[in-house]
Amino acid sequence: MTRASTPCVESDRGPLALVCGGGSLPFVIADRVVRDGRPVVLFPIRGFADAVAVARYPHHWIALGQLGRFFRLLRSSDCRDVVMIGYVLRPPVRALRLDFGTLRLLPRLISMFRGGDDHLLSGVARLLEEQGFRLLGAHEVAPEILMPEGVMGRFAMQPRDQADTAYGFSVLTAMGPFDIGQAVIVADRHVLAIEAAEGTDQMLARVAQLRQQNRLPSQPGVGVLVKAPKPSQDHRLDLPSIGPNTVAGVVAAGLAGLAVTARSVIVVEPEAVIAAANQGRVFISGVRAND
Amino acid sequence: MTRASTPCVESDRGPLALVCGGGSLPFVIADRVVRDGRPVVLFPIRGFADAVAVARYPHHWIALGQLGRFFRLLRSSDCRDVVMIGYVLRPPVRALRLDFGTLRLLPRLISMFRGGDDHLLSGVARLLEEQGFRLLGAHEVAPEILMPEGVMGRFAMQPRDQADTAYGFSVLTAMGPFDIGQAVIVADRHVLAIEAAEGTDQMLARVAQLRQQNRLPSQPGVGVLVKAPKPSQDHRLDLPSIGPNTVAGVVAAGLAGLAVTARSVIVVEPEAVIAAANQGRVFISGVRAND
After folding, report:
1. pTM to 2 decimals?
2. At CA A15, angle to CA A11 and CA A16, rounded to 5?
3. What is the rounded CA–CA span in Å between residue A202 and residue B206?
4. What count of CB pairs under 8 Å joins A to B?
5. B136-153 pLDDT, tens per residue?
């Protein structure tokens, strides 16, 4: 995978299709790809993508469940490479609007839904490739969105934070086979919270609340949010991300900082992340996977 | 440990000391021991034990951190056997009121606090035994408080629930080495929540909220709360428990029921638990540890 370090423009494969969930990241990627000389066509997902930002690019709105329409539009737009980016909450089955192309695939989609997220996403990747498309990771077309190794901002990890970080990575590794969350909060080798369906922001809010209620054993200023991709995760589809909200959550939870695996976690709005970390006096650290 | 199946009255060892945290369970145990012919002395913990109920028994109030006073009162009351029961939130160190006997032990207490709950509790057990006392589990003096094997109430596990239960136990086993929570919620082999510092009730409330927000992949009526002691847990000190609140939480979270390891989880107010389960149409199941 040398592609991870050099942007993949390859305009001979037609415009790059960007399936856009929520947040600002899809537009960061789109601008980068256009700047590199390759046209883009956005496929914003109804209910998630930002309509005002989408209007600046060639685009076709799609709804979750409209796989038939999506494949048709990909072909008519001459797109063969597809990047999926931005958050999409895992939808309840009854909220899907199934079109005919999807109905044909329904038995397989149902079996994907019965497993965890990994199962669902890698199933989508397989379907795309069977239809002759190529799925790329957002970091393959814009490697600079990934957390680098080392420190972002003014504050660095202390030995106590390094111990908590190592402990947190062990917990995440142990949970890997179960396709659970991607984040854990550890303070003085005591696990305060583990993320599952609620997401990182809500997990951080919970720890902030437990602290207000005096229900945590650790003092304020101790503890690390540790975040990593799941071992089984397809990096083209679902890399974890941090952004200014994450840092605000770390500050509100009274932690010392946050540590993520270097080069496999996306940093959304890095300038705002650094500013929030410096103001909140917390560290942001990219740790090599085997550290 | 044949003691687990026959109550331990042994009145030749003096009155039984019952260190009482919050909830009704300490008084259920006290009544059972008195009925068996052994006197009790209660040591209710300030801020946790129910003062009205405590007044019905011989008692001495203690504060967290007053180990010196506690050991002195145990001796003057002629107690050699000690049972600790009822919930005590893990206190922030600054909330402790340390007496002289505690200060002498401070270096060891601090090192206990730096580990997880198990570490703290087993340290307390060691201290008691060094002082010549014997720590017993509540279930050793009142075995009927434990969840039996099989079903409580009118509803039974379906095959889907059995698969979710087995998956949940695997997750708990994988987390065992980290001294984390004792409970997990699984629906269609998808982990919805893992308990850490927040406790079971709050974890259930979170899943109820995620369901209201349409953020869960599973339908209402699917999913199991799975609860077990941590593998490293000293059963004399800290068995997990379920009660009517737990069942109300399972119903509110839209789950099919709850499964616990048989004979190692305490059922508080079993009649109310059964009534709540029948009314809420959820199952309560005690599963053999190796199932």
Report:
1. 0.82
2. 100
3. 10
4. 112
5. 988 899 999 999 999 999
